[in-house]
């Protein structure tokens, strides 16, 4: 059956004009909500939606709720770029994108309900919002909603996030494969996602039959800034006998890595000749203090595209099971990590190769 014939059938069954049906199926915004719902219901009944699932988004407007810091690149470059990725993913769909600042926890319920109840809010994306009450409301309201980098504990909302557990495990294993046994981890544990990365790091130690001792192998920062990380590493070097210094630092962010390298250099140490440094981030600082940075790139730009695709699936099949998609990262091999012990460990993973 031709596309034209299906549009004609939908028009006849709904009592709407062919042009109205065509505009709805093309994702255009100049149609009423009532007409849109009639056309989509009839199109689904006739199996038309499956054929256009990869085409128009079929919504004209959606709102992204995100922490306030996400709107300032200087405060949270990761979330800021994720929001840009959402906008870029929506360009082909000609959908209007709006934003609303919402705290991660203890969110403004009135503000959320007000935005969600607006007629132009046809769908929503929650970015980094951990408030379980907001998740409950989003599920109960019935409008299509997906999560980015957060989880609905009641499993009613689908979401997409980096695979934080695997990221930590992979990064630590890379250093072990390069022959490093003494690895000091420097992380900011501000959110549960960082706790998941730390759990992956611990798992890598366990798989090597190595004992992870927080007092010797972990430094916890309160922020992702370079200044605090530099102070933590400087204090660590001053308080730790040189024979007990690690051979490598595994750092939870590029700016933190910049501070760590600065502390090492001020202590007269060379990177990587005297101590290797590896980052889990890899987007913001390709080079720090003239040292090209080896890092695991955490998925970021891809999150927006995957969220829009997931939203499209929820529109096509609202009755489908809830899913949580975890995105793998990529390894970028530069010059800040050296191999120790010739022939020890497995060969290093080549640059830009996706890890399993």
How would you describe what is shown here?
Helices cover 41% and strands 17% of the residues. The chain has three domains: 3-51, 434 Repressor (Amino-terminal Domain); 61-157 and 301-328, 3-Layer(aba) Sandwich (Rossmann fold), CATH 3.40.50; 164-294, Rossmann fold (3-Layer(aba) Sandwich), CATH 3.40.50.2300. It is elongated. By secondary structure, it is an alpha/beta fold. A hairpin with a 2-residue loop joins strand 10 (287-288) and strand 11. The longest helix has 16 residues, at 192-207. Residues 1-5 and 343-356 have low confidence and may be disordered. Helix 6 runs parallel beside helix 7 (132-141), helix 8 (164-177) packs parallel to helix 9 and helix 11 crosses helix 12. Strands 2-1-3-4-5-13 form a six-stranded parallel sheet, sandwiched between helices. It has a six-stranded mixed sheet with strand order 7-6-8-9-12-14, sandwiched between helices. Strands 10-11 form a two-stranded antiparallel ribbon. It starts with a helix and ends in a 24-residue tail after the last strand.
CATH architecture descriptor of the largest domain = 3-Layer(aba) Sandwich
For the residues shown, what is the average pLDDT? 87
Q: How many beta strands in the DSSP annotation?
A: 14
Figure out the total of helices. 13
What portion of the residues fall into strands of 2 or more residues?
A: 15-25%
Q: Please give the CATH class of the largest domain.
A: Alpha Beta
Number of domains: 3
Q: How far is the first residue's CA from the last residue's CA?
A: 42 Å
CATH topology of the largest domain: Rossmann fold
Helix content: 40-55%
Taking the sheet with the most strands, its summary is:
6 strands, parallel
CATH superfamily caption of the largest domain? Response regulator
- Overall morphology: elongated
Q: Please state how the strands of the largest beta sheet are arranged side by side.
A: 2-1-3-4-5-13
Structural class of the helices, strands and pairings? alpha/beta
Low-confidence stretches: 1-5, 343-356
Radius of gyration: 24 Å
Could you spell the SSE succession in H and E letters?
HHHHEHEHEHEEHEHHEHEHEEEEHEE
